[in-house]
Amino acid sequence: MSHIPSSGMQNLKESLSKLKERFDGIQGEPYIVESRKFKALYFDSESTQSLMDMQAPMRLVVSYTETMMGFLLFHPDPKSIAMIGLGGGSLAKYCHHHLPASSILVLENNAKVMALKNQFHIPDNDARFKVIKADGAEYLRNTEESFDVLLIDGYTKSGQAPQLCSEDFYASCLAFLNPGGIMAINLSGAAGLNQVYQERIDRIFEYQSIAVMEDDRMNQILFVCKGDSLKISAEDLLRRSAQLSKSHEIHLPRTAQNFLLQRNLTHSECER
Fold first, then answer.
1. Of 84, 87, 83, 88, whose CA–CA distance to 99 is shortest?
2. Which of 41, 98, 126, 148 could link 78 by a cystine bridge, Cβ 3.0 to 4.6 Å?
């Protein structure tokens, strides 16, 4: 979930606002709004669940999705990626297209969201890519599978799904990750609640998490590793971001800088 990026999209928001208001009475029903340039998935007119460039369907349009791809800074060659929350499939499509050596599993519990897959150019299921209808928390609790990367972006009309915020769920996430694996969570909502969730994660994981604030101040992306990958030196992290930028046209250098800033702030607070 994210608010529409301000750069280049204000006209889109203004031109579609009246149309979106017609749908706000629908309780949690996903719907699509199109302009000549963009196709958007909504639950209500307050926030955009997903946004697709009609001319470049694989491009990441919404800023927070680029930041979530920051997992590459800490695990640049994942063999397996799992996602909770499909939405319009921006992250799933990007990983499928740009990480051909990775197997991808997407868990989505809303059948009506899954029914919109084709409208967002989401690939069909095959040996390497699967979207299945499942409650993410229940799936992780009962599976014996393990993955290198876990991306969590599970929202309803009311906000982050409550089953994706508990200590039991975070313990399942830890067990689900391979050694050295990384989890990235989109935290969109009240700062106080986000802090509670981060504290829960820090109690479960042996290594401290780092939450990176988006420039729009509406989203935080929390990174946590099953290992010490987040302790990478600043020099190595910036070098890696520059190398990755040769094959990924997303703001990885900015994510690296924002991560280092937040890591320094976190360490300073811990030393007080």
1. 83
2. 148
pTM, two decimals, is 0.88
Q: Which structural domain, as residue segments, surrounds residue 103?
A: 63-244+259-271
**Calpha distance 43→107 (Å, rounded):** 19
Assess if residue 251 is contained within a domain.
Answer: no
pLDDT, tens digit, 9 for 90 and up, residues 70-122 = 999 999 999 999 999 999 999 999 999 999 999 999 999 999 999 999 999 99
Nearest-angstrom CA–CA distance, 8 and 263 = 31
Cα 68 vs. chain centroid, distance in angstroms? 5
CB 229 within 8 A of CB 237: no
139 and 211 inside one domain: yes
